[in-house]
Design brief:
Keywords: Flavoprotein, Oxidoreductase
Pfam families: Pyr_redox_2
Low-confidence stretches: none
Radius of gyration: 20 Å
CATH topology of the largest domain: FAD/NAD(P)-binding domain
CATH class of the largest domain: Alpha Beta
CATH superfamily of the largest domain: FAD/NAD(P)-binding domain
Protein name: Thioredoxin reductase
Number of helices: 7
Largest sheet: 7 strands, mixed
Organism: Anaerococcus nagyae
Number of domains: 2
GO molecular function, one term: oxidoreductase activity
Length: about 300
Amino acid sequence: MRYDMAIIGAGPAGLSAALNASVRNKNIILFGVDSPSLTKTAWIDNYLGFTHINGNELNKNFKKSIESRKNIERSNKKIQQVYAMGDYFSLMLKDNDIIEATSVIVATGIDLKKDLENEDEFFAKGVSYCATCDAALYKGKEVVVIGYNAESVEEANFTSEIVGKLTYVNMYKNDIDLNPSIEIISGEEPLEFIGEDRANTLRFSSGKEISADGFFIIRDSSKPERLVPSIAVDKEHIIVDKNCRTNIRGLYAAGDIAGRPYQINKAAGQGQIASLDSAKYITLIENGKYEKDFWNK
């Protein structure tokens, strides 16, 4: 299915972008769940119009703003990768389904957890980020899931029914509901991957090591360059201009992923900026009036 705009991330930047695009009659799909960094904030005293409010209540107010908007479709599915296809984008979902959008806004926030050593080196060489996508490659083999969230539990249970042996490195919480066949490692901090042509060993900070045929890391978010191949970044942030445009035509970034300060006010404002410019871009594409120098203005 083709949408005018796909927004990845449902925090302040993503919700702001969705609202403003909806007002401009664009057909939108919004991916993501509530932002933990917002909902877990005890008190907010610097958001215009609210003198003293907790993050969960502010988030509820944000969501109410788009509830009645019929041209916003919501999805909790995880985006694996975004590919630029010229005048549109192809978004690959967790279940290998694909949707298309004329423009994309990345508003995923950032995960401040550091990569494991050699994680980048062994990406797609024994290290992956979607167990349900790649589990079939390890049928009858040994795999490790390093889990940081609820999704990792679901992925581990699914994968355990396909592979020969699954070990779950628990970085999430104590009361997890895993299949009895899954071996659990708790209280150990994963440090680095070891191997030659591909990763075959995970070493922990304690010195403990485990070997496997494949490793899956399930976090809340991943590096932007893994999400969007060829995106220009500065460390953990996507590089944007004053219009929140990236180096890829039709693709925008807003909120924490676009740089500091990590503030709700800034995120909501950038979501609006990205959305308004994206709506203008979409209209030009639809009317066949796109100018080659538009993206460089």
